[in-house]
Amino acid sequence: MIKCIVIRGGGDLATGVIHALVQSGLRCVVLEVPAPAAIRRKVALCEAVYQQQASVEGVTARLCGSAQQAAELLRQESGPVVPLLVDPECTFLAEASAAGIQVTALIDAIIAKQNLGTTKAMAPVTIALGPGFTAGSGPGADTDAVIETMRGHNLSRIITEGSAVPNTGVPGVIGGFSSERVIHAPAAGIIHLAHDIGDTVKKGEPLASIESAEGQVTVPASLDGILRGIIRDGYEVFNGMKIADIDPRISEQKNCFTISDKSRALGNSALHALLMIAHIKGVDIWNS
Predict the structure, then answer these.
(1) Per-residue confidence at 138, pLDDT binned at 50, 70, 90?
(2) Distance of alpha carbon 19 from alpha carbon 39, whole angstroms
(3) Given this model, what pLDDT does residue 176 score?
(4) Would you tell me how many other CB atoms lie within 10 Å of the CB of residue 97?
(5) What confidence score (pLDDT) does residue 215 get?
(6) Using an 8 Å Cβ cutoff, are 248 and 225 in contact?
(7) What's the structural domain count of the chain?
(8) Count of alpha carbons within 13 Å of 220, Cβ hemisphere only?
(9) Distance between CA 250 and CA 175 in Å, rounded?
(10) Is the pTM of this model over 0.85?
């Protein structure tokens, strides 16, 4: 049996978790939704859903159609390659054993600010990132540990009893800007990009247009800077949906294409929590 860690989610923060685990020699399987809405697409392994495979800093996710295909890919041992399945309901967990896979841990890295179905019964070790989960041994606990995702003194702190800080809805400060740097869809419809990730943009300049029921709606840049992230061209957005992120620091263009400080911190903390909880519970997560 191949031992593996299941990661729910493949967005940019989840990618930091996947990267930390894979680079440490652990085998992972990623479970995603049919249409991921990652903004920082250049550093999100969930892009494999659209492109068959995606690579971020030496780790590649490859789209698989079944647990059996995932097992075959894991057995190849052809470098840091991670199977990714479209499986929001986590049916992989019930199919893994028949495919020769032993799920030793599950990490919920969806960052939905709520629990979308993760329970302690899913794996011997369970960890979640962000608010919406309760860690511990009590009757209301749904994970063994929770990782704090709020920027500040407690970012990436491992919580073994209790929950992360509730969602504030306020983005972290970058270059002196917080809410101003995040752009939300002004209408529902199909988005068409005028700029892509890494482009330098000016305040008021059109970033994209939305083909809505009322006609074309322009999406202007909220400030001068580098387009750090924007949802993929042709995505069907809803009114108010987060669709783009601008970094006001023009000199930081290269950061659009590398794992962020926050993502790396969360990834290292998730690895730490996994090793700690596995040790405490006597769960062997390593393949010999």
Answers:
(1) confident
(2) 18
(3) 63
(4) 12
(5) 93
(6) yes
(7) 2
(8) 8
(9) 10
(10) yes
Residues 6+ apart with CB under 8 A from 274: 5, 21, 26, 105, 107, 125, 127, 285
User: How far apart (Å, rounded) are the C-alpha atoms in residues 40 and 45?
Assistant: 10
8 A C-beta contact, residue 114 and residue 124: no
CATH classification at residue 199: 2.40.50.100
User: What is the Cα–Cα distance from 132 to 107, expressed in whole angstroms?
Assistant: 14
Question: What's the pLDDT tens digit per position in 158-180?
Answer: 999 999 999 776 665 655 656 78
Structural domain of 192: 179-248
The two three-digit tokens of residue 42, written as one number: 């250049």
Please state, in angstroms and rounded to a whole number, the distance separating the CA atoms of residues 285 and 130: 23
Which of 14, 21, 80, 71 shows the shortest CA–CA distance to 47? Answer: 14
Are 33 and 47 a contacting pair, CB within 8 Å? Answer: no
Are 135 and 43 in a shared domain?
yes
Q: Are 20 and 143 in the same domain? A: yes
Q: What pLDDT shows up at residue 167? A: 79
Cα R_g (the chain), whole angstroms? 19
In a domain, 253, yes or no: no
Mean of the per-residue pLDDT values for the chain? 95
